[in-house]
Structures are given as structure tokens and as C-alpha cells.
Amino acid sequence: MRVLLWHVHGSWTTAFVQGAHQYLVPVNAARDADGLGRASTWDWPASVREVPMERLADSDPELVVLQRPRDLDLVRQWLRQEPGRDLPAVFVEHNTPRGDLGKARHPLAGRCDIPVVHVTHFNELYWDTGRAPTTVIEHGICDPGYRYSGELPRAAVAVNEPIRRGRITGTDLLPRLSRTVALDVFGMRVAGLGRALGVPPDRLVEHDDPPQSTLHDLMAARRVYLHPVRWTSLGLSLLEAMHLGMPVVAVAATEAAEAVPPGAGVVSARIDVLEDALRELIGEPQRARGMGWQARQAALRRYGLPRFLGDWDQLLKEVT
Predict the structure, then answer these.
(1) For the packed helices 271-283 and 285-303, what is the interaxial angle rounded to 10 degrees?
(2) Given a cut of 90, is residue 99 above it in pLDDT?
(3) What is the average per-residue pLDDT within 153-179?
(4) Domains by residue range for the chain, with CATH
(5) pLDDT given for residue 253 in this prediction
(6) Mean pLDDT, all residues of the chain
(7) Please, where are the H alpha helices in the chain?
(8) Rounded to an integer, what distance in angstroms lies between the CA atom of residue 21 and that of residue 35?
(9) Is 296 helix (H, G, I), strand (E, B) or coil?
(10) What pTM did the predictor assign?
């Protein structure tokens, strides 16, 4: 099947394009958000083909995977087709709703011809999707393999733009938690984070946009993975850390409690409980290793790539 989709979410797309289809990814001269093309930092198979925006109509897609309301307009503009009517379509909702939850009406809530695919059950529960049919296809992860050494008695945190996103990503919790365990923060635009939070450089080290090829090894050298996020959809970095064999300490928000079962980590809304867990895991390497192994087994069972691709194949078959 020829599947059209925009390169919006690199980690999710990397898993999605491992399937048995042909994947058409729009590209433009600017390589901006509407035409980013193939990933440069992830390993995508040859079945992913860049298509210039002006030639999309000639690419003859059999289905479009929408991920932003804007994608509807892009299909209309460049293919001269109406998604859901002229061209089979699904809409992947990656995010939790923003603002007043009482008014969290999905952009496709007034339509019944395009299924909304949520990446977590939490998202499906919190979005008002109106007439739109919904389903949940939980994340799938390209297994990076068991890499955990935990040799460094520090906590890894993976988050993008923590200064701008603030409380959403739990950035305000880092100063307190850094007094319990030294932190290594990995992600895009993390430079200057310690200074912005007033955390001494020996307690918070920034790793700004590390190469994807080395990120997993860097994370797996840390003793524990800290997930301070309050209000985003389930972070793929959390699932990747579990695949690596890292024990998890996470704020009990959104889907985290579902993703991290007992024995794989500590999930709590109490900051003192998180502090105690960090302290204990840093001080007990063998316990940390055992908990990380259980985290990996849980992640492989629930978020393995075969299950993810199988779920998607079934849905695409139904929609077309």
C-alpha cells in the first residue's frame, strides 16, 4: 500500500515506516515543517520515498495518515482531494488536549469519515472526539537492545525544550530532585537549563541535542531514568529507556502509571516518594539493574514493534 504521511514526529514515524508498505514523505526546498522529507538522524528503510510537494498528485497514494489539522489543507491543496471522501484517511493524535479540558474538542470531532487514532488510552479518554470514530494503537519502539550498565550514579532525563515548556515537562521539579541525585538532561534546546533553574553545574549537566547514534549508550550509562513530565502524551524517551534496561522513576501523570508496571520502576505523584526512590536506586546498583531488566521485559511485551505494526496493518486494511 502507498501511504502518504508528513514527517512530523521523528521517533513515532521511525517505528511506523518499519512496516511492509511504501511510504511517501513530502519534501520542499526549505525542508520546513510541511516538507521535512526523510529523517537525517533516524534510520529509515528504502521503502520511505521523498516526494516533492508539487508532485504529490502524481504519487497516487492509497491512504493518507494525517497528524495535524493542517495536513487536511495540504492534501486539498496539493492532491485536489478531500481526505476521508476522495482519499482514505486516518488522523493520528499524538498529544494530550491543551487548555480547558471541559472544552477539549478534537478538530475532527464534527466528522465521521476519518478515524482518530490515539497513541494512548489516556488521550482517548481526555479528548472529546464527537462523531469521529476512535481507536487506540499504543506506541511501538524499534528495540535498541539491552545496553544498561548504570555505571554512573546519576539520573538521565530526556526532554525537548524544557525551558520553554516549563511545568508541562516538569522542569520546575528538577532543582529539588537535583539535590537528591545529579542529573544529566538530554534533548533539544537544553543548553542553559541549569543556569535558568539556578542549579549548580555539578548537579545538572546539559547534553544539548546529542547524536541519535550515541544517545542510547549515553543514557544507559546512567543508573536510573527520571521522567518528571506532568502533561504530555506518553514520552517515547521513557519507553526507549525501558527498552535499554533502565529502572524508571516517574511522576504519576497521564499514561505513566500504565506504562511502568510494579517492579519496573517507581511511579508516584508524591515528590518525597520520587526522591526516596532515586536515592535508593542510586545507592543499590543491583536493585537498579534488576528493576531495569523488568522494565525492559514489560516494554518488549507491550510496546514491541511487531504488535505495533500488526495493529496498524489491521487498521489500514479496514480503512481502505
Answers:
(1) 110
(2) no
(3) 97
(4) 2-140+305-319 (3.40.50.2000), 152-303 (3.40.50.2000)
(5) 96
(6) 96
(7) 10-16, 69-79, 121-126, 162-165, 174-178, 193-197, 212-220, 236-244, 256-259, 271-283, 285-303, 305-319
(8) 20
(9) helix
(10) 0.95
